[in-house]
Design brief:
With about 160 residues, the chain is mainly β. About 5% of the residues lie in helices and about 35% in strands. The chain is built from two helices and nine strands, in the order βαββββαββββ. Strands 1-3-8-5-6 form a five-stranded antiparallel beta sheet. Strands 2-9-4-7 form a four-stranded antiparallel beta sheet. The N and C termini lie far apart (about 60 Å).
Length: about 160
Amino acid sequence: SLKGKVQKLKDNQFGKVGLTKGHKNPPAEIESSIKHYKSYSIERAYRGDTFFWGIVPKQGDKIVFRFKPPVILEKYKLVTGNREHPSDRFLNTTCIFKPQDNSIAGKLETYGDGWISAGEFNHFWVAEGHLGSKFGPIKAFQLSVGASSVNWAILSEIYFKPG
């Protein structure tokens, strides 16, 4: 190297790292009690246009995906946080679903009114699972916040794969 020479280096991934991963999800009506920041809405995240950026989720907040029409869900995957905002994650958040056939819920541990536990975000900040045809068509899938957060929260991937 030459003394006093300045080399301008640029990481080859700079500006190219994706902050969201979009998927083709089944048609759904979406409701959320969490306000979103600017254009980072849950509807745009569901379509795969961007990520969802919610402002300080509180205990009892919900995001509900109501499938129109109900669908058999082979798989679901939700990812919280992203590389630019690693602390903006859903914490203590449970994933629950509601089958079209209410009699299925009677045989399983439920969260009341026919909602069945699907899981929660793991230590890699991913909530995923396989539901398959054993539950029949699913009417709705919900994220339920169990504890208030001091940070905002991001959903960087939303994927519901019909079966």
